[in-house]
Amino acid sequence: MHAWPASEVPALPGQGRDLRIHDTATGGRVTLAPGPVARIYVCGITPYDATHMGHAATYNAFDLVQRVWLDTKRQVHYVQNVTDVDDPLLERAVATGDDWTALAERETALFREDMTALRMLPPQHYIGAVEAIPGIVPLVERLRDAGAAYELDGDVYFSVESDPHFGGVSHLDAEAMRLLSAERGGDPERPGKKNPLDPMLWMAAREGEPSWDGGSLGRGRPGWHIECVAIALDHLGMGFDVQGGGSDLAFPHHEMGASHAQALTGEHPFAKAYVHAGMVALHGEKMSKSKGNLVFVSKVRQDGTDPAAIRLALLAHHYRADWEWTDQVLQDAVDRLARWRAAVSRPDGPSADALVEEVREALADDLDSPAALAAVDRWAERQQAGGGTDEGAPGLVSRTVDALLGVAL
Predict the structure, then answer these.
(1) What are the pLDDT digits (tens) for 36-63?
(2) Which site in 53, 93, 241, 384 is 20 to 30 Å from 25, CA atoms measured?
């Protein structure tokens, strides 16, 4: 599966700072100091609907991570999946009368268009669950053969008790895990499971649903968590730098994925840091496909909004914060974009050397994009007041905003 085109990232004078970021697993900030190649895995979409602002906010956060790393002169090895077969996708296809593969392809294509418009840097490997099945099956077989998985009426479940580190990502108690498991795709009430929290690794073929050859597992399709584990281990290996996604993935998805990988390899941790973006609400409730309270990136673009303004609306909120999308949020971003473009359109202006360092420091400090925007605002205000004659300043500001914030002025 192919990703989307990459926009050029301008080089800036000097060098960026190592990223200090909040790690869900430790509950505090860690300083990420990868080697020459930084490794990141971000969980992708289940393509049964278009990209909404909650998606966009999450991918914006991890785009900033990439940009901070690139500014430190590192290479970035970024991997993202597409869950192109799963219950929600199949259910939507039945409800709409679509072929499930056509639905997945259409919504994945729209996602690519949105990511391109928002200037999100693409992954080097963009892998669908279906194309990953040949690599998933041997992992499930290994877990079963090692006693870390078991069969139940043809389905294969992972035993969470096989990983001594289980619970180390989310740090939730058993009751909280059980409630979230039921809410987020698990089946804690199914009779016969060794532990109510045990997640499915391989679902035996159901009548009327797609299935694939699973070797000794029989025909079926993979569970959600093992999909990401197989892709991450194949392309990044154990101990990669950042596992990313929305805060609703901390449990069960990232918790279970970590345990799958740790049981498979005997190594810990699966990822050095677990980084989670906050949720975006509309009319007081988290945007979700199940509730239908969505603001789609493609619709806002079709209404004539510059994608750079959409990106500024996302950047105006700290990535870990829960916040609400409103018309005013978007209007504030449109106004800010206009001020910035007017400021850099002049032939000279106040020196921007300090601004570059301010933006770098803000982003290195747990991706504090609101502080970075405020720094650019202050430069634009000085420019408006006629405070300088540096002919290189407007161009340097434009390159800084482009390279570090992903906004083209």
Answers:
(1) 999 999 999 999 988 999 999 999 999 9
(2) 53
List 285's β-bridge partners, or say none: 282
Q: Which residues contact 315 (CB under 8 A, 6 or more apart)?
A: 60, 369, 370, 372, 373, 405, 407
Amino acid at site 115: M
Q: Which domains does the chain possess?
A: 19-286 (3.40.50.620), 297-405 (1.20.120.640)
Indicate the pairing of strand 280-282 with strand 37-42: unpaired
Yes or no: say if 112 and 4 are a contact pair by the CB < 8 Å rule: yes
Which H helix or E strand runs over 42?
Answer: strand 37-42
Task: Tell the residue number behind the tokens 């268009």, with chain if given.
Answer: 113
Task: Determine whether 329 is exposed, middle or buried from the number of CB atoms within 10 Å of its CB (0-12, 13-18, 19+).
Answer: middle
User: How far is 1 from 8, CA to CA, in rounded Å?
Assistant: 22
What gap in Å lies between CA 3 and CA 141, rounded to an integer?
A: 30
Q: How far, in Å, are 42, 102, 246, 262, 356 from residue 32 at the CA level?
A: 16, 40, 19, 21, 21
> Residue 91 is encoded by which pair of tokens?
């259910």
Cβ count within 10 A of residue 191? 6
Please provide the distance, in angstroms rounded to a whole number, between the alpha carbons at the two ends of the chain. Answer: 31
Sort 287 into a burial class: Cβ within 10 Å, 0-12 / 13-18 / 19+.
Answer: buried
pLDDT tens-digit map of 107-156: 999 999 999 999 999 999 999 999 999 999 999 999 999 999 999 999 99
CA angle 97, 103, 104 (to 5 degrees): 145
Beta-strand ranges (E) seen in 86-239 are: 125-128, 149-152, 155-158, 200-204, 220-222
Give the neighbor-by-neighbor strand order of the sheet with 280-282: 285-286, 280-282, 323-324
CA distances from 272 to 33, 50, 169, 241 (A): 10, 31, 11, 5
